[in-house]
Amino acid sequence: MKRPLRKDLEPIAASFTVKELVEPHFDPNWHFHPHYQLFLVEEGTGTRFIGDSIKPFGPGDLVFLGPNLPHLWRSDQVYFNRQLEPGQTKKPLVAKGIVVYFSADFLGNDFFEKQEMGQLRQLLNHSRRGLEWTGPTRVRAQASLLEMTRLPVGFGRVLRLLTLLDELSLATDYRFLTSPGYINTVKVSETDRMQLVHEYVLSHFPDDLSLETVADLAGMTPPAFCRYFKARANKTFSEFVSEVRVGHACKLLLHGQLNITQVSYESGFRTLSNFNRQFKEITGQTPSGYVKTYRQF
What we know:
single chain; 297 residues; alpha+beta; Jelly Rolls; 2 domains; 9 strands; 40% helix
């Protein structure tokens, strides 16, 4: 049986959920749920899909999502390859993270409407576009989340969460993830179709993707599929594929094992000029400029 797109978390007696994930790979399903979600990647690499945002992720990635914002942390393919070669003893890769879930009324119906909660209320509103933090805030948040996983269920853990949210609301080193005005238009009944499209692109983006093949996979004509995808993803199918390819290229560039021409080919681009143009359109930088920027940190 295929999993539904919308997730309903298991009910708990506590006011919110915090747990440390240790899995072979992160959940590969594109989904959304009615809870706020704060997620920190401790170990693992891959591509992060949030609304209409596509970016690579790695250790230290810190994101806060509002309710019903579709998301997927897709681990790199090596995390799905569990079989070792004969005689190979290398330890299997694992994906680790800390996740916090809470509902809008986890402290009561009107708690965040009080005068003192103005800054936190703004944070919650901003999270509906998805937020990520960098720099010192991310480091402090990681320590707070680790502490939270070790605290017993009680007032101390609630206080730690509120303190962390307050710190995040005052920080300035954040970025919005989705485009202004992004709205989740995906319906639960369309789960299988969107899931098939995501899985196909993520498995075949280095190859020459055929619009006809993808449309057929979705059970639609190419023109109908293009209209459908644009309405659901807030971007064209070709833009989606380009962002997936550029996201993969970003990871290869930062690994530093391939030159730019090799990275271009491995990411699915057939000409270097097209790669350079698409890369700059999506990231705002040239491939070489991107590497220089991120190696400063």
